[in-house]
Amino acid sequence: MSTLKIKKGTSKHSAYDLKDPNADIIETHTLTVIVTNEAGVLARVIGLFSGRGYNIESLTVAEIDHEGHTSRITIVTTGTPAVITQIKAQLGRMVPVHEVHDLTEEGPSVERELALFKVAGHGDKRVEALRLADIFRANVVDSTLESFVFEMTGTSEKIDAFADLMRPLGLQELARTGVAALARGPAET
């Protein structure tokens, strides 16, 4: 058995011990996946994420072409650059998947989310909730003597900010749709 001695002042790293400098960087990416609209497709896509321990921050799915039987799945996920690349490659290999797009990398995109907020309160808190809703351009979609339901569309950050302001004013429930996203500009052909 031999022992390796390292002289003082020399590097302990070899060319075979190269580490990816981006390995510890966690990024958030918005992916759109066009799939055949058939039973079990969503379960298979989610299974890919859960089976490998990938995280899903947001998930929306809806049919986009009734005649062509295709749906768009929009997934907001986080991971290192290598993990994001692996997710896209594995999604692209799935049989019912027609297209995979990383809107975060492909250029400017528009992302929106719909949220409903139930806020209960009386007196000054009620007035303040209405004032803030006006500033954030939230619509009142239901009103009783004890509560309001506000509807808001915007970025996830805008919805988070409104929720943070509503909590001390009596936020009771919050429902969010998840992110819907499209690339900006003309469609590529």
TrEMBL record:
Q: What is its EC number?
A: 2.2.1.6
Which InterPro entries is this protein grouped with? Answer: Acetalactate_synth_ssu, Acetolactate_synth/TF_NikR_C, Acetolactate_synth_ssu_C, ACT-like_dom_sf, ACT_dom, AHAS_ACT, AHAS_small-like_ACT
Pfam families xrefs: ACT_AHAS_ss, ALS_ss_C
Domain ACT per the UniProt entry, residue ranges: 30-105
Pathway given for this chain reads:
Amino-acid biosynthesis; L-isoleucine biosynthesis; L-isoleucine from 2-oxobutanoate: step 1/4; Amino-acid biosynthesis; L-valine biosynthesis; L-valine from pyruvate: step 1/4
Question: What UniProt keywords apply to this chain's record, in alphabetical order?
Answer: Amino-acid biosynthesis, Branched-chain amino acid biosynthesis, Transferase
Is the keyword Transferase assigned to this protein? yes
Gene Ontology biological process terms, A to Z: isoleucine biosynthetic process; L-valine biosynthetic process
Q: Which residues form the signal peptide?
A: none
What reaction gets catalysed by this protein? 2 pyruvate + H(+) = (2S)-2-acetolactate + CO2
The GO terms describing molecular function are: acetolactate synthase activity; acetolactate synthase regulator activity
> Looking at the UniProt record for this protein, which Gene Ontology cellular component terms does it annotate, in alphabetical order?
cytosol
| Self-association and partners | Dimer of large and small chains.
- Matching NCBIfam families, A to Z? acolac_sm (TIGR00119), PRK11895.1 (NF008864)
What protein family does this chain belong to? Answer: Belongs to the acetolactate synthase small subunit family.
What is the annotated role of this protein in its UniProt record? Answer: Catalyzes the conversion of 2 pyruvate molecules into acetolactate in the first common step of the biosynthetic pathway of the branched-amino acids such as leucine, isoleucine, and valine.
- Protein name (record): Acetolactate synthase small subunit
Annotated organism of origin: Litoreibacter roseus
Q: What is the lineage of its organism?
A: Bacteria, Pseudomonadati, Pseudomonadota, Alphaproteobacteria, Rhodobacterales
